[in-house]
Design brief:
With 102 residues, this protein is mainly α. It has one domain. The protein is 79% helix and 0% strand. α2 runs antiparallel to α3 and α3 packs antiparallel against α4. It is flat.
């Protein structure tokens, strides 16, 4: 079993718990949290790609993260979502572009 699957899931759950708590309490989702999740997701996928010698993993992660950001940005632009939601959803896409553990 691929140990990276569990790390993506674990980091995603922690990210969602902290993001939900701060959003409910302070009505804001921290940029450090969201950008950190995006960067961490890409870095972990890069390490996984390097270790498994399969660079489709990082390619798919970057493509899905970018597509998710563009779609989320569109929802923000028309007023459906707030900016923190866009960044948090993008961070989740960076961590879980295609997760076989779900």
């Amino acid at each position: 079993m691929n140990p990276f699957i569990f790390s993506y899931f674990f980091v995603s759950i922690i990210l969602l718990i902290i993001g939900s708590y701060t959003d409910l309490k302070e009505r804001i989702i921290s940029n450090k949290l969201t950008y950190g999740g995006i960067v961490l997701g890409i870095i972990i996928h890069l390490i996984e790609s390097w270790q498994l010698n399969d660079y489709w993993i990082i390619g798919i992660a970057v493509i899905v993260t970018t597509a998710t950001f563009v779609a989320s940005w569109g929802l923000w632009k028309i007023g459906v979502w707030a900016g923190g939601d866009v960044k948090l959803f993008t961070a989740l896409a960076a961590l879980n572009p295609f997760n076989l553990g779900i």
